[in-house]
UniProtKB/TrEMBL annotation:
Top-level division of the source organism's lineage: Bacteria
Protein name: FAD-binding PCMH-type domain-containing protein
Matching InterPro entries: CO_DH_flav_C_dom_sf, Diverse_Substr_Oxidored, FAD-bd_PCMH, FAD-bd_PCMH-like_sf, FAD-bd_PCMH_sub1, FAD-bd_PCMH_sub2, Mopterin_DH_FAD-bd
Keyword tags: FAD, Flavoprotein, Oxidoreductase
This protein's record includes keyword Protein biosynthesis: no
GO-annotated molecular function: FAD binding; oxidoreductase activity
Amino acid sequence: MLILTNFAYYQPTTTADVLPLIKDGNIIIAGGSDLIPQLKCASIPAPEGLVDLSGVEELQKIEEKNDGIHIGAMTTLAHAAKNETISEKLPAVAQAARNVAAPQIRNRGTIGGNVLQSRRCFYYNQTKEWRQGIPRCYKVGGDRCLQIQNSPICRAIYYSDMAPALLAYNAQAVVNIDGKDQTLSCKDLIEAHCQDHDEKKMLIKEFLFSKNSFSGVFSSFVKYSLRGSIDFPVINFAYVCGPDTLRIFVGGIATQVIELADTEAYLKEHGKGFTESAALEIALSEMNKKNQVIRESGISVQVKRGTFRYIETILADIKRHI
């Protein structure tokens, strides 16, 4: 399948070169594993220009500084998975990167691109010709969700593997919006993205993990999918626990990443004395209330909801490390 449109192609080498190119009509391309299929299927408007960030080395750095660990938004998933600093101090980030797709995609895909990937639905992720036979949905400018007919919003699922890990560490994003650098919480950045409220003229420069987010804590990332890491997650979990910290995030089951706040509150209240059966009941109740599961290729809604019980393994792991 070919991209049947003409557009300009820009290859800046510095952020200073990038910023003037972030304008209406242009689209930023990181690794391209999400964007290129969308252009081929014409599921997004054809751009006037593509701004390729792969040559901007300052967006690919991994550095540990006094305030924490800085990871460039253009760091490839393969590099993040193998980097010693990340593997040692941010293991959930390394594990998440290692579990994205196949090696070829990890060699191209980036952390920033994985976080800002488009939400997916099998009515939307089809060719333009296929979609001409069905009503227009919210994702392509229509007035309905084809998955949930009475839904006032698009119910396409957010499948990022990196997002739960970033949220578990309470990471921040350094971004440039309209030419000005500012720091946002990854929570705000991801929530805005999942609601299709991204800033139009924004460049994500790096992700910042403060020292207190990873010092003296245990953290991990677990993914379940139909074919190991090759597929998008059926469900994934990222969690961080320590003396004063406990965060559990679940991805792949809603339009955005879900935080199990009720479960966290119970675990914090009872500490090592929590009972796994009670924690499991609270976690399942919370996921059943907050999930937005829809029909997917290869798995039924009923089977997908059955995977919520995998939280039992996570709770047992937390029990050992809390």
